Amino acid sequence: MLEVSGLKVSYGQSEVIHDVAFTAHKNETLAIMGRNGMGKTTVFKTLIGILKHNAGNIVLDGQELTGLPSHARVAAGLAYVPQGRMIFSHLTVLENIQAGLETATQRSRVPDEIFSMFPVLQEMRHRKGGNLSGGQQQQLAIARALVSEPKVLLLDEPTEGIQPSIIKEIAHTLNEIQQMRDITIVVSEQILSFTLDVADRLMVIESGNMVHDVAREGCDAEKITAFLSV
Ligand SMILES: Nc1ncnc2c1ncn2[C@@H]1O[C@H](COP(=O)(O)OP(=O)(O)OP(=O)(O)O)[C@@H](O)[C@H]1O
């Protein structure tokens, strides 16, 4: 579904992503794990087209995305929830979700399915986004991304700054989305327990290189923890 190969990305003269390659299959949840500064956000920003890559290919469902602007990548089936969520705090919950419709080609109203996935957003639809808790804002950011009916959802560190009980809820929501839709999820993470709840496959990035790739079934949690600790 999403095939990335030979990806190289630089900030100025300094290359920070070196020959990264991975494939996320249809209906798979792939977790990209790594400590701060290892390159997760840079990879995600490159996939959605905020950053340019120096080399490599990004192919979504057979379509090469290299060179396309972000909105064309969204139209092709990619959706992105950035680190820090980036919701519009002065807009209501409903208006935030409707903002996602602007990039959706087929739809003019928020599908009911979105509110059945996120009942809390239904209750709070007239509240300002800025008045929601961190976990609710994360749900809002995911809901906004889903209205474009993406084939691949990119989630950059969805648990950052969120308390443990709510992290469990977010994992539950992602698993529900997987059951309700044909969707591939690529999620960057540092929290192994969350990843083990949601991912089918785990990869580890270190200093811009993919250094580990394993199915969740039978993965060695201690080994992954060692990659994640300083
Ligand atoms: N705008 C920038 N200009 C120059 N270097 C940058 C810039 N953004 C990130 N970097 C560098 O690129 C490398 C990868 O950073 P990146 O933010 O992708 O890591 P990350 O794994 O997402 O970490 P975090 O979890 O802290 O966001 C780091 O060495 C970082 O210092």
Automatic annotation (TrEMBL):
PROSITE patterns: ABC_TRANSPORTER_2 (PS50893). GO terms for molecular function: ATP binding. Keywords: Amino-acid transport, ATP-binding, Nucleotide-binding, Transport. The keyword Nucleotide-binding applies. CDD domains: ABC_TM1139_LivF_branched. Residues 2-230 form the ABC transporter domain. InterPro entries: AAA+_ATPase, ABC_transporter-like_ATP-bd, ABC_transptr_urea_ATP-bd_UrtE, BCAA_Transport_ATP-bd_LivF, P-loop_NTPase. It holds the Pfam family ABC_tran. Belongs to the ABC transporter superfamily. This is Urea ABC transporter ATP-binding subunit UrtE. It comes from Halomonas tibetensis.
